[in-house]
Design brief:
35% helix; globular
Length: 502
Amino acid sequence: MEKVYRSYYTKSGPIVTYMVQKLSAENGMRVLEPCAGDGIFVAALNSITQNLSMDVYELNPQAVLLLRRRYGRNAEVRITQADTLTDETLSFLARMGGIYDRVIANPPYGGWLDYEKRKLLSKLYPNLYVKETYTLFLYLCVQLLRDKGILVFIVPDTFLNLHRHTSLRRYLLTTTKIREVCLFPSCFFPGVNFGYSNLCVITLEKCISEKRCLDNVFKVVTGLRSVGELALLAKGPTSQHSVFNFKQREVYENIGHALFISEDPRTTHVINRCTVRIGDIAHCVTGFYSGNDKKYLRTASRHLKNARKYELVDTSLICVDYESKQDILDGIKGTKRFIPIVKGGGIKYFKPDMWYMDWGLEAVNDYKTNKKARFQNPQFYFQYGIGVPMVSSSRITASIIENRLFDQSIVGVFPKDTKWTYYLLALFNSTTCNTIIRTINPSANNPANYIKKIPFIAPAGRQLEHINGMVREIIEDARAGKRYPRQYEAGLGRLIAGLYGF
């Protein structure tokens, strides 16, 4: 049931206190709680206000029974068992311009949706990413607010910058005045600890004037060290918190309307003002997946991470001249059919051949016909480029691909002009690039769409030659099994920091 409802009840007193204070509900107002759970917001609001007219929606029948036991005799609390996102009454009220003075919620996130439900939601919310339902709640509930009505939600912070939520950000920036965004670790929320995002409480006000929306200035608060600080935060941030002020028009003009938060304004300046990006000068593509790695993938050593899941490669079956085969995308004839493949892992500059994929004729035919396989972007297989792991624990890294196959855990970066290959390799391994990518996308993921957004600042001719020379020596030392001079990497970092200004 948890996979269906994905309900994380708001059991934290400080979070509830903060959200209710931000809601600023007054006696006699009409309030919506679109996913009430066990009714903790209903109880909190009733304890500090009088005569609130509350519409309470909940899908989970067990939670509805609990709500009716608690509030069934209260005529001011109307409880409806329904799916808020598809409820016809709410859809009608949204189309009419909204009726609620206040909306407060902890909407579900991360839940499983069957394909029929996804199809329905895609029809109802055609411009939104329907697999993450909390964004649909946010969109619908803004529509349900009357002008100057206030909404307070606790949600993951992914809607602030992820590429898939561009349409939602455009809508919020042009139809609401954002008052405050408070960011904090997901572990503050009882029973939740996401690896892919933090949480935030967003407070916004419906506004029918796009100009007034874009002229609005809002604050983002970070740096909370404990959940207890939230209860005090409604009175105003203290000196121990980091507070950033943003004009909505400036955020709207950012690439993808994303909210970029950085302690160093030079970082956001480069991201927003740069006219050339990696996507303009290089192809950024996701790699290959066999559909059945247990069958087709081999390892060169049991000491590699996760290698115990796979068979050791028989070295007599490795094809050493695969690069010379013109029909390589159709597979290799004969028994020597295993070829090297570049996988993820935080190794800089050069990865030795550690993994091998069966590239025989039958295997390749299976890759092309098996629905589980991903024979995607084959025009970039066996080309010379750069591999950036899709997931990184602490910082982005990159290594040379060198005409090898690369798997779907890698973003392959193939410069349109090969003279930039070594420079990009140095850039991706720099602290400067790590700062940029973590500002563009604070999660631990580095998908192709975010790699494309990294600003590209070209070095001058002699500087490019100098960078290429150092990178070439690093690769040669790494290929020979030597430790490359650390001063080279430090020197590259200084050169790139000088180019980007931080």
